[in-house]
Design a protein that fits this description.
Layout: H1 2-12, H2 16-27, H3 30-34, H4 37-53, H5 57-70, H6 72-76, H7 79-91, H8 96-104
């Protein structure tokens, strides 16, 4: 939990490389899987911005899709998730499942 908090703090401070590094370290432990699904999904949604700021819209999209598999309500109901999904879709070519997710929640992205 501490590494997840540090990752989000680093992202908020603009140190996206550190944020992603801390995120990867924290999510490869058993403690990650013991967190409630909603907390894991919310963290992934929040970390999406760090991936986008690093120019990795594919990782950002994977984070959103993983969050949707873990706890769909976190992606489908949170306004920040909609904002992040829109940003990912605008960042470049995306997988079909990300486009389907956007359509499922009623997002339309103009070019």
């Amino acid at each position: 939990m501490v590494d997840l908090t540090r990752a989000l703090a680093a992202a908020h401070l603009g140190d996206n490389h550190l944020a992603v590094t801390l995120h990867h370290r924290a999510t490869t432990t058993d403690a990650w899987h013991r967190l409630p699904a909603e907390h894991r999904a919310a963290h992934l949604v929040d970390l999406t911005r760090a991936h986008l700021d690093l120019g990795d819209h594919h990782a950002a999209g994977r984070a959103l899709l993983t969050a949707d598999r873990i706890a769909p309500a976190e992606v489908r109901l949170r306004p920040v998730a909609h904002t992040m999904l829109t940003a990912v879709l605008r960042a470049g070519p995306t997988p079909a499942d990300l486009t389907r997710l956007a359509a499922t929640i009623g997002l339309t992205v103009a070019p």
